[in-house]
């Protein structure tokens, strides 16, 4: 286990090092630096180690401070969408697996296929048009009503409200949650479809195992079998796939934030591209890509830690 962990961490560091090399080569080509290539790359790594990503050409502020301001809002949105996808996808995938080949299974899988196929930006536009403009149930843009003056203590709106004591704290919290509903649901549709598919296929395989049949022969109820033997063994193998889905949620947030005017790192990167702010583009892309890689490696390590079959495979090598 220790050797495997060291290998994964080494791969993580090598991948991030390659990302920094690509980012530096782009900077070197666009800015036409006269310093030697490898000497400049070493200086670039030293600046990254000190947390120096340069200055934004648009605002004149350090890129790292801007990332610290915008990234928590994106992370809050992505975590909420990922949680919703798990809360919806696991029960629906379980129902589909337990009713394999029946009408309920076909209905769930068909709905998941439609949700997976429809572009995120089109879903966002439909949600704004129907729930905000037509029905007026939910706000269509922003993080919080302008009436609530909440300082950006952490960058995450909900956490900022909780950390800032005010007489209207409860009302501001409810308003922030209302602003999160539409972008969260739009972001959650695609990963929910993926979770349904993975849970269904994994649970179908598990429910055919001999230990499940033995539990049924002992008189254990079907819900107990599904809970104690089915999901317990079906979920760990798909944890790495869920890590990849978190990366896709993070990239989809770029489009969603623009449509819902959510002040996160996605909208900031898009505006930086529009004004050709190369330092912001480079720093933001590097941080987002590094976070996606870190999430993927973390899920693989968690799978190895909590899934005995995976550990057995490693020990057998």
From TrEMBL:
Residues 71-303 form the ABC transmembrane type-1 domain. Keywords: Cell inner membrane, Cell membrane, Membrane, Transmembrane, Transmembrane helix, Transport. The chain crosses the membrane at residues 6-26, 79-98, 110-131, 180-199, 238-260, 280-307. PROSITE patterns: ABC_TM1. It is a multi-pass membrane protein. Pfam families: BPD_transp_1 (PF00528). The keyword Signal does not apply. It comes from the Bacteria. InterPro entries: MetI-like, MetI-like_sf. One of its GO terms (molecular function) is dipeptide transmembrane transporter activity. It is found in: Cell inner membrane; Cell membrane. Its main location: membrane. Belongs to the binding-protein-dependent transport system permease family. OppBC subfamily. This is ABC transporter permease subunit.
